[in-house]
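Re: beginner question about structure tokens

> Can someone show what the tokenized structure looks like for a real chain? I only ever see the sequence side.

Sure, here's an example I had lying around. Input first:
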Amino acid sequence: MSTITTDDHATESAADAETLISADYEAPMGTLTLVASERGLRAILWPSDRSANTWRDRVKLGQVTTGSNRILDQAIAELDEYFAGTRTVFELPLDPSGTDFQVQAWSALAEVPYGETTTYGAQAARLGRPTAVRAVASANGRNPISIVLPCHRIIGADGSLTGFAGGLEWKRWLLDHEAAHSPGQQSLL
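And the corresponding structure tokens:
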């Protein structure tokens, strides 16, 4: 399972001073931009992030240059396997930039098994903060590494699809993709 380096995760101010490397990745939903430090994957930006330039509100990145490194190579290989239906757990190192609470919420996302869903309330309870449902939802809304940190597996208490950086159409697509590659499941919703 991918883990976040919590002893040295990038704070938002440290992220501004660091030069990161990016590469485009052709996914079923369009071109995703992968961004990495030398420590781990920092972000996955969606086509809608790029076209509307909204990623700056959701993800703090600092200086980014196009290129390649071992983290991006591993991310591309693991995403290829995920979209082929042969990978259910990501193993690459992660290096998101956020507050301590955000990083805790994002770490909890990695614990939601492939092919399953849970609610924001359950995620908050897992963090030991059962009344922090809105704070968890807000943190998930700023998840910089969607798909790998599977915020698409978090649904509303009533079972409805709720916000997702890539849009609800792609959230449903990802859930259906996982259901199609999970034994005995037809649909997660």
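Each token stands for a local structural state, so reading them left to right follows the chain. The longest strand covers residues 19-27.
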